[in-house]
Amino acid sequence: MLQEKDLLGLRTVSTDTIDEILATAVPMKDIISRDIKKVPTLRGRSIATLFFENSTRTKCSFELAAKYLSADCTSLAVSTSSVQKGETLIDTAKTLEVMGIELFIMRHGASGAPHFLGKNTNARIINAGDGMNEHPTQGLLDMFTIRDKKGDFSDLTITILGDIAHSRVARSNIWGLTKYGARVRVVAPETLIPVEMQKMGVEVYTDVEKALKGADVVNVLRLQKERQSSGLLPSLEEYNHFWGLTKERVNLLKEDAMIMHPGPMNRGVEIMPDVYELSQSVVDEQVTNGVAIRMALLFLMLGGSRDEEIN
């Protein structure tokens, strides 16, 4: 069982905890590959998802993870809930808590919202993405995918390419990977690289060719079009020309390099369709691994132990 009450980000999580989560995800992934994808491990346990932002991939991934472990999972439809009548976040959570909810999975547009809820409820909290802060389960599934293919992080050079400024995925990747000694590069237009990057122990590039050269992994971030209205980019065509991942740029990576993307992809903008089809692409595997990581977290946070048999 995880010692921490909540999983809010990878910045403050120990490597021992990360190792425990990644190791527990291995047998969880085996369950996903079975014909009958269901075990009674969390039967009788209650979970609620609180998504204040639209999400398909992450929300479905958590809900499937809960169902595969036989937990009861309630999804709060925020757009039709009492939140629209002015009920506070704490009151909403406390109401669900006294109904028996033990763990909340929360996505919110405001950075720190899951931290606030964690301090004001006895239920456990998993941060499913908060503002421009962190997306820890995406960071963990990315690490799980990289370790599965490459082993020791400390020997790797990993380039994160894309909208660094608005990316909670980038921040969780950086906090997690640098704990293990990985060499992390970030590359983007100057307008999409926040000043704090210099303090996070990464190498900052604006030249994509230099950032990709000799890398073991490239993690391409989604260009968040909805956040580009303030003139940070001249045009999507120019972004693709100077920073998009093309086959020609893939050739700058190591021969056995991995190509990653957290999804959903803007094909033809930050990544070309034929790059996604390359054998080096592990994008689909990331999605499967996301369910395994979330199963591992739910199991460990609701009282499971890695030594416990999972059947």
Note down, in words, how this protein is organized:
The strands form two sheets. A five-stranded parallel sheet has the order 7-6-5-8-9. Strands 2-1-3-4 form a four-stranded parallel sheet, sandwiched between helices. It is globular and about 55 Å long. It is an alpha/beta fold and 311 residues long. Helix 1 crosses helix 5, helix 2 (57-68) crosses helix 11 and helix 5 packs across helix 11 (283-301). 37% of the residues lie in helices and 14% in strands. It contains eleven helices and nine strands. The chain has helices at residues 15-32, 57-68, 89-98, 113-119, 136-150, 168-179, 208-212, 236-243, 247-250, 273-276, 283-301, and strands at 46-51, 72-76, 103-108, 124-130, 157-161, 183-187, 203-205, 217-220, 258-260.
Fold topology:
Elements: H1 15-32, E1 46-51, H2 57-68, E2 72-76, H3 89-98, E3 103-108, H4 113-119, E4 124-130, H5 136-150, E5 157-161, H6 168-179, E6 183-187, E7 203-205, H7 208-212, E8 217-220, H8 236-243, H9 247-250, E9 258-260, H10 273-276, H11 283-301
Parallel strand pairs: 1-2, 1-3, 3-4, 5-6, 5-8, 6-7, 8-9
Strand segment count = 9
Q: How much is the radius of gyration in Å?
A: 19 Å
Unreliable residue stretches = none
H-E string? HEHEHEHEHEHEEHEHHEHH
Distance between the termini: 17 Å
Strand order of the largest sheet: 7-6-5-8-9
User: Class by helix and strand content?
Assistant: alpha/beta
How much of the sequence lies in strands comes to: 5-15%
